[in-house]
Amino acid sequence: MKNKARTIAFIFCIFLTHFIFAEVYKSNALVSYYADDFHGKKTSNGEVFNMYALTCASKQLPFNTILRLTNLTNGKTVEVRVNDRGPFVADRELDLSKAAAAKLGMLKSGTTHVKIEVVSWGKNTKLSYQTAVKACKIAGIKYTAPGPKKTSADKTASAGTAKTASKSTASATTSSAAKKTTTGTVKAGSDAVSKSTASKNGAADKTKAASKSESANKETEIEIPVSPSSDQSYDTFVFWDIQLGAFSKKENAVNLAQRLINDGFKDVVLQKSGNIYRVVIRKVSGQNVPIIKGWLSEKGYTDMTIRQRKGVYEEK
Question: Would you say the pTM of this structure is higher than 0.85?
Answer without folding.
Answer: no
